[in-house]
Design brief:
Helix content is 36%, strand content 16%. It has helices at residues 11-20, 56-73; strands spanning 24-26, 34-38, 46-49. 23% of the residues are buried.
Length: 77
Amino acid sequence: MTANPAADWTIADVAALCREHAIRCTPPSGGGSHWKVSDPTQRDILTIPNRRPVKPIYIRRLVRFVELVKSARDGKA
């Protein structure tokens, strides 16, 4: 994802990355269309629309979010 954020990424790819890093990835509820990505180490909640493909800006934000979580867990934040 880091090397090619403009690839044909799907929400399933986003969920898989979150699972790999033990980050919460919650599907839409109540008729919404945005998945919520969150972690106890972060104040912000990242929202990603359930469209295919996921736009590169959301992939870049997700990669940055994962980096921040990893950093916080390693004690570097």
